[in-house]
Design brief:
- By secondary structure, this protein is mostly helical.
- The chain has two domains: 1-201, Farnesyl Diphosphate Synthase (Orthogonal Bundle); 206-328, Orthogonal Bundle (Farnesyl Diphosphate Synthase), CATH 1.10.600.10.
- The protein has helices at 22-42, 48-59, 65-73, 82-106, 117-120, 123-141, 146-168, 176-202, 207-234, 237-240, 246-250, 255-264, 269-273, 281-293, 296-316, 322-336; strands at 12-14, 17-19, 110-111, 114-115.
- A hairpin with a 2-residue loop joins strand 1 (12-14) and strand 2.
- Helix 9 (207-234) runs antiparallel to helix 15 (296-316).
- The longest helix is centred in the middle third of the chain and has 28 residues, at 207-234.
- Its cofactor is Mg(2+).
- This is Heptaprenyl diphosphate synthase.
- Belongs to the FPP/GGPP synthase family.
- InterPro entries: Isoprenoid_synthase_dom_sf, Polyprenyl_synt, Polyprenyl_synt_CS.
C-alpha cells in the first residue's frame, strides 16, 4: 500500500479521501492490501527484464486512487469481494500502462520522483512494458465476465481517443474549451468512471446506482484535472508541493489558459507567450502574473464548481452512509484545494 493510503481505526486519509468511519476505514485498508498483493503477483514474469521494468513505476508509489474508488463504490452493493479486488487491480494496471506510454509520447525524464522507464531504458522497452501491463489487465478482466470485458475494451478506446484528440488539437473553428473538456473526460475521467462502474456492478449494486457511480467517477476525474490546472497557476510551491508554471514550461494549454486566451481573442502579450513552451524563468513569471490577473482562473473555478454540482447530484441518488459521506468530502476537497 502506498504511503498516501494509510489504514487505521478511523479518521484516516486514503489518497484524497478522508475516512472517518472505522468500519469503512478497515474495509478499504484490507481491500487495498489484497489489491497490492495481487498486483505484485501479476507483475512477475519469467523474463527478468519485464519483471524489473513492470515493477519500476509500481514501486515508485502512487496514490492508488482508481483501485480505492473501485473498493469504495463496492460499498453501495454488498461490499468488497474477490471480483471487486480483481477489478481494482485491473484499473490500476491500465493506469500504470498508460503512464509508461505517456512518458514516451511526452519524452519525459522523470515520473514519481524517479527516472522514467524510457529514460532509464529506452522508448521501446517502455512501450513494451505498457503493453505487458495492458495484457495483464485484460487477463484479470477475463475472469469477470463478458460485460466487464466489454467495459474495459471501451475504456481502452476512450483513453486512446482522448490522447489522439489532445495530440491533434481541435478542428479549425472548433471551441477549444469544449475540446479540452472532452479530452480530460476521456483521458482522465474514463478510467475512474470504469472504476466506479466495476465496484458497483461486481458488488451487486442496483443498476441505477451503478450508472450513478460511473458518471460520478467521470466527473471526479475531470475535477482532479481542472483543479490541478488551477493549482499550477495560482498556488505557491510551498502550499501545493509543485513548481508553479509546470504546464507553461511544457507548452500545455490548460483550462484557465484557454479561457484567458479566449478573452484576448488571439491578441495580446499572453497569447504571444503561450504560443509554445516557455524555457525562460522570467517569461514563466510574466505569464503566471498575466494569468492570475485574467478571468481565466475565475472561469476555470466556475467550471469546477459546476462539475461539483453535477457530482453531488449523482451522489444524492446513492444510499446514505459512510461511503456517501467520504465521496462528498472528496468533492469538497477538490474545490477547497483550489481556493
Amino acid at each position: 500500500m502506498s504511503s498516501s493510503a494509510r489504514t487505521g481505526s478511523g479518521g484516516e486519509r486514503f489518497s484524497s479521501l478522508n475516512i472517518e468511519d472505522p468500519g469503512l476505514s478497515s474495509a478499504l485498508g484490507s481491500g487495498l492490501r489484497e489489491v497490492e498483493a495481487l498486483l505484485r503477483e501479476l507483475l512477475r514474469s519469467e523474463v527478468a527484464l519485464i519483471s524489473e521494468t513492470s515493477h519500476h513505476l509500481f514501486e515508485a508509489g502512487g496514490k492508488r486512487f482508481r483501485p480505492l474508488f473501485t473498493l469504495l463504490a463496492a460499498q453501495f452493493g454488498r461490499g468488497i469481494n474477490e471480483d471487486v479486488v480483481k477489478a481494482a487491480a485491473a484499473v490500476e494496471l491500465v493506469h500504470l500502462a498508460s503512464l509508461y506510454h505517456d512518458d514516451v509520447m511526452d519524452e519525459a525524464s522523470m515520473r514519481r520522483g524517479a527516472p522514467s522507464a524510457n529514460a532509464r531504458w529506452d522508448n521501446s522497452i517502455a512501450i513494451l512494458t505498457g503493453d505487458f501491463l495492458f495484457a495483464r489487465a485484460s487477463y484479470l478482466v477475463a475472469d469477470l465476465g463478458v460485460e466487464a470485458a466489454r467495459i474495459i475494451a471501451s475504456t481502452f478506446g476512450e483513453l486512446v481517443t482522448g490522447q489522439m484528440r489532445e495530440s491533434t488539437g481541435p478542428a479549425a473553428g472548433a471551441d477549444r474549451v469544449s475540446h479540452y473538456l472532452t479530452v480530460i473526460a476521456e483521458k482522465t475521467g474514463s478510467l475512474i468512471a470504469t472504476s466506479g462502474q466495476y465496484g458497483g456492478m461486481l458488488s451487486g449494486a442496483a443498476e441505477a446506482e451503478v450508472r450513478a457511480l460511473r458518471r460520478l467517477g467521470e466527473l471526479v476525474g475531470s475535477m482532479f484535472q481542472i483543479s490541478d490546472d488551477v493549482i499550477d497557476i495560482d498556488s505557491p510551491a510551498t502550499e501545493s508541493g509543485k513548481t508553479p508554471g509546470t504546464d507553461l514550461r511544457e507548452g500545455v494549454l490548460t483550462l484557465p489558459m484557454l479561457y484567458a486566451l479566449g478573452d484576448e481573442n488571439g491578441q495580446g502579450r499572453l497569447t504571444e507567450l503561450l504560443r509554445g513552451p516557455l524555457t525562460d524563468d522570467r517569461q514563466v513569471a510574466e505569464a503566471l502574473e498575466l494569468l492570475r490577473a485574467s478571468d481565466g482562473l475565475r472561469k476555470a473555478r466556475e467550471t469546477l464548481a459546476d462539475y461539483a454540482r453535477q457530482a453531488r447530484a449523482q451522489l444524492d441518488t446513492l444510499p446514505n452512509g459512510a461511503a456517501n459521506d467520504a465521496l462528498g468530502d472528496l468533492i469538497d476537497y477538490m474545490q477547497a484545494r483550489t481556493t
